[in-house]
Amino acid sequence: MARKLLYNGTIITCNAENEVIDSGAIGFEDEKIVYVGKTPDDVSLYEETIDLKGDIVLPGLVNTHGHTPMSLLRGYADDLHLQTWLEDKIWPLEAKYTPEHVKWGANLSILEMIRTGTTTFVDMYDYMDIVGKAVDEAGIRGVLCRGVIGFGSEELLQSKLKEAAEFAKNWNNAANGRITTMLSPHSPYTCSPEYISQIIDKSVELNVPLHTHMSETKYEVDKNIEDFGATPVAHLDSLGFFDRPALVAHAVHLSDADIEILARKNVSVSHNIISNLKLGSGIAPVGKMLAHGVTVSLGTDSVASNNNLDLFEEIKSVATIHKGIAQDATAISAEQALRMATIDGAAAVWLGDKTGSLEVGKDADFIVVETNQSFYYPRHNPVSHLVYSGSGRDVRDVYVQGKQILDNRQFKTIDEEKILFEANRLSRMLAE
Amino acid sequence: MARKLLYNGTIITCNAENEVIDSGAIGFEDEKIVYVGKTPDDVSLYEETIDLKGDIVLPGLVNTHGHTPMSLLRGYADDLHLQTWLEDKIWPLEAKYTPEHVKWGANLSILEMIRTGTTTFVDMYDYMDIVGKAVDEAGIRGVLCRGVIGFGSEELLQSKLKEAAEFAKNWNNAANGRITTMLSPHSPYTCSPEYISQIIDKSVELNVPLHTHMSETKYEVDKNIEDFGATPVAHLDSLGFFDRPALVAHAVHLSDADIEILARKNVSVSHNIISNLKLGSGIAPVGKMLAHGVTVSLGTDSVASNNNLDLFEEIKSVATIHKGIAQDATAISAEQALRMATIDGAAAVWLGDKTGSLEVGKDADFIVVETNQSFYYPRHNPVSHLVYSGSGRDVRDVYVQGKQILDNRQFKTIDEEKILFEANRLSRMLAE
Description:
Two copies of one chain form a homodimer. Chain A is 38% helix and 22% strand. By secondary structure, chain A is α/β, with parallel strands linked by helices. In chain A, the strands form three sheets. In chain A, strands 1, 2, 3, 4, 5, 15, 16, 17 and 18 form a nine-stranded mixed sheet that branches. In chain A, helix 4 (154-171) links the parallel strand 8 and strand 9. The model of chain A has no long low-confidence stretch (mean pLDDT 97).
């Protein structure tokens, strides 16, 4: 690939100094960033140059929890109590899923993430070979796991674990390193301690991290205490889960002792603020977690409980809701919220050396936001505008490993019309 | 004007039955809606017909609280304690405002509201003749008031009240009825009881409603009790404020007795959920207000504390945050949230017979949302998609009184490029 330079933009680096460069440029060669700084006087070193005309460049966003195939259920059921929603609506439809549903559901989600500026996402579902293939083809980056739920015969459990392990082994570092893998018991309330222990052992053997749902609802925490005499955090800790690199989704209902464990064991948290609100689960104590040094990243969860994958909404929500709850307008700054969706998200999935910030030597994963619209005027503070006024709809271009996958809002690697058509066709069949 | 028909769309009426019409159409002649229903077989009655190709038509949104000229301060100061933010940042810049700042600030806000589907907005500021002129030219609908703050000499106070009254008198029912007016003491904590009483008397004389900020912060409520021995609600009630048609913005910190007064006196509430969160003010007890029958509508407040005027964000926020707070996924349905931004908003500003729903005989104030994008797939439930997955960026066309003012995202009545340029130029001068 040629050396390319995008110049005359505002570069939001999300580096350690949180540098924002006016009249800036980003240069890259093949997969790697080779320049971040002021627009150079001499651009002749670059074969291709693009004038950003004041648009904003920032790292591609990192969405640290979701279930891409569930996009077929968007809008199928809302505003119901969690158990009714799951048992009467979501699970019966998911039981009818075939590999075709997984394929087009995953593609619909991947399309929407690219469209709104996400370049790395975590996915936990079934038929993950299909998701892996979709990631490979779309050119996005995925941190993938075949989620296993501890229901069924011992034989079924062992077959699921075997499938999860094979997926983790076969796909780790696939797609030019754009795919990494994890192992994932669904949750402490759906997997026995013995099953979780087996999964932990397997993660040691394969040298992959762990991912799970944890402490999403008060009911779940109460039940865990009743069943095992410990909070989900203490329970998982006692099983050795946190002696492995681990990412937990939700972490809404936490005791102070829980937060200390998460901090001490370097557990990554995926804060799914909108999904937690919409399902009536509650609001995670993010301020406390940050104060204890926990790595907090942002996740959308699936569109069934969100109902979109535009991570800009999570960024604005995290920067406003915690202020309102704490009645403190200084809680979680715009800069912090943006870091949660970029460099902290990358760190949460052990990719902090590859993506999540714009620095020489890292992979060229970045997005361009079109600023010639009211939401970005007056030109006081680009980070504030992105966080408080921006939307994923403002993303114009997306690059992953130096390859452009969205160009002026047009997809370069995937067939949008076909995906919308097939996703609709298959989901209508499910619902009928 | 000719008779026009938009057909083959999904019509979300927001009428009393909350009717949603698949394969629907809306017909209008001059200013008025003449048809809402299934796409008719014979469209020859209409001189102009437009195929919606499955897009969604809904009533234009109603934003019931804001300060349009403050858009020049977007991103100038964020993440500060309210008093620091006001006293060190916002007020010093506002003190430098000239009529030019008001003009271009108001235009920037009006542009953004049209762009994101708002057709009626409430505005409280100074130099309101300029705002009235901008509303007239843009073709949007405004419920306007010259806000008066009770600081300064008696002479100054009387001159402000005189100005507010003249504005209310001169502009009421102006711009072909698109402008109505109110009188507005800034708040019970910035206006003496005597001054508020004078304003109430004037509103009787001019037969216009009242608008004010009320119970936004806990500090303000505590101070009101200390100064006057009553909550702001009880205090205003004792002055006779609620014996007039009244719209109060914020209403965050309310006692049960306060809520009973608001219900009994038919007070309209403008719930400014995002601004209240961002300024760390807290979260209004919307569930309780609705249970008592209070008319709750949605407002953005100014972009200085939001930081945009996309009311779709308020709609999603109100439908998710109150679920999370109450830990009840059935709190405030998608339908309810949408009504707050349409028909309930119209009712809150005494325009429920003219706008806010799509019904024959009402003014043709409606918007078209482009659904041929992932956010609206699969086609399970258009109201859910609008509320939980949609964005003001998806609005393609806007009509007010049957006149199209946004056409395929292009403004037909205002000069976008000039407004962005002038707003930026003037605000940079302010900040320097």
